[in-house]
Specification:
globular, 4-stranded antiparallel β-sheet, 96 residues, 41% helix, Gyrase A, domain 2, alpha+beta
Length: 96
Amino acid sequence: MTVEAVHVALADPALRAWAVRDGKLYREYRFPSFVDAFGFMTSVALRAEAMNHHPEWTNVYDRVTVSLSTHDSGGVTDRDLALARQMERLAAGRVL
């Protein structure tokens, strides 16, 4: 996807919390607790595995930081946007 196409996609209200950093989609989630953050990651892991598309992410206590890109394509693709949308659905009602 072009940089312009990615920015157009991020104009979608469902993806408003996402940004582009270093050529990747980027988002930081904050949860009420470590257990909530880890539960979110577990839910995402199941979806990501089913999609065969895995995030780069870290977890420190109540925060989960995510970067998405498709390495084979050298940038952001529709697969990354689809996973970001899945993550937003799974985070709904859980994040602070």
